[in-house]
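Q&A log
Question type: sequence-to-structure
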Amino acid sequence: MGELMSEELKFHQVAYVVKDLDTAVKHWADNLGIGPWTVYTLKAPGLRDCIYKGSKTEFSLRHAMAFAGNMQFELVQPLDGPSIFMDQLNTIGEGMIHVGCIVQDHPAAVADFIARGFTPLQSAAGFGAEGDGAFAYFQPPDGISAIVELISPPKVRIKPDYIYPAQEGA
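Response status: OK
Response body:
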């Protein structure tokens, strides 16, 4: 791995694509003890600059995030438009789809991945409450490892759809 990325990549997330987010959240919380889950819907106009396999498009999804120790788990349910999530549901089915890492300089990290032969699959921006935040998914050049997501988290998240299990005092 190049020096730039070996220092900047901080993998912290494993993501799974699911058909029914609400059922999956309940299962992971009730049966696996992971939670609480914070559930969001990402769609236009907040979700912007959407690109899927090199073409501008629109897509929407619901996702939920929870921590188990330092590991963040993400569950993703595609809603509308083309996406890597819909692709997996239509070919392989539910299961692990990507590993994610936070990057400080999203454009530089994206440029580095492309220069090193990673294939861009999907990206979008603007999912934060202040219109910031960006994500980009890549297939590594060897095709062996999972899809990698480069994440620039928003300063402030949008209001969640709900949290499960509900937190006391919330």
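Response note: The first strand starts at residue 10 and ends at 17.
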